[in-house]
Amino acid sequence: MTEVEASQLEHRLVLRSGRRHRVLRGHPWVFSNQLEGLPDALVAGDAVQVVDSAGAFVGRGYAHPNTLIAARLLTRDPDVLVEDRLIEERLVTALALRERVCPGRRSFRWVHGEADGLPGLVIDRFEGADGRPRVVLVANTAGMERLRPRIEGILRERFDVMAGFWKCDSRGRALEGLPDDAGSGWGVEAGSEPAWCTEDDGLSIQFEPHGGQKTGLFLDMWDNRRHMSPALASGRVLDLFSYVGQWGLHAARAGATEVVCVDRSQAACAMASQNAERNGLAGQVTVACAPCEDYLATVRDGSLDAVICDPPSFIRSKKHLSRGSAAYRTLFARVLRKVRPGGLAVLASCSYHLNEERFERVLTEAAKWANCRLSVIRRAGQAPCHPVPLWFPEARYLKCWLVSVDVL
Ligand SMILES: C[S@@+](CC[C@H](N)C(=O)[O-])C[C@H]1O[C@@H](n2cnc3c(N)ncnc32)[C@H](O)[C@@H]1O
Asked: Are 358 and 289 in the same domain?
């Protein structure tokens, strides 16, 4: 397709004048109130070209007529079209970055949406014992939904990805008017291969790409487990919200003698038990399928050497910030009471709206409620396969801090 042909297929969106739009400084989003208006014919996912109020080219991407984010840009080069070559280049660049910043790692987030120049797309890559990559993909927007066939074709032909599942059931899709679609893909029949296996810093981890949560594994935590689990290497350790047990298993492998993984999902608990078995750690690790709140009530105060607390997000949108922050504070306070003086806690939040400053405040208040003093040993976030461009701070969401717990 030539540029002229492309421009015939693209709608033209004009930025309002006199505003300091972030899109002019590298941000990929254009909000509906930043535009002069939207063409009547614009349909969700349509290709667009964004120009400034003087008509100068700003970027090219896709748009949605009914969402707050009206357009997302994929390129700022007027000579580049949104076609196979651009997508392939983005995938090559993203993979090269992972190979540099996550050397030797066999499972990682290959594409982190806007941060990798592919807005609305997530690709998590898993490598099994056969050494061939498989992927779980998420298209969160109508524009990315349209690019699915291209993405799939490139992954199969150019990158020899042997199997892929689209796991498109995010909340964001509903906002875009897209139906859930979890299960289509290639390489393996949906459900015919319920469990996949991947290596995780020397542990063999089984998980369910289909039935499991998110893309099957939480690939944002591996770096934290790698750096923090050596500190969890003795005594009694509680892994709250354990999913398939990775934190608990890392602690056990490091030397913790008595580890309990707690999750309310039966499927996750079954996987956690299997993972303990397959790594020869079943003697140290037990799995309790229960709400963490109930399990905590059975634990004696001051009886744990360490605890990991990695709950689901309590703050889905900005309006839940105050209530969600209170929920974190209450939970963390209950958790901290269970740790012996001199013990350790890994406290995490994946809520985007709870920024680092607020997270610190929550921890300070939780310590007050638990009548203890906390020192931060390691202040970490998401693994390096989840990059955060300075021009796109929205890519940052995870806080994971290792703290030591002392008497007041
Ligand atoms: C963020 S994920 C945990 C990821 C895990 N720590 C890891 O590193 O892979 C949150 C987990 O909490 C579980 N969960 C949610 N609410 C719960 C509750 N009230 N009690 C126990 N588990 C819960 C979910 O089933 C899910 O496995």
From this structure: yes
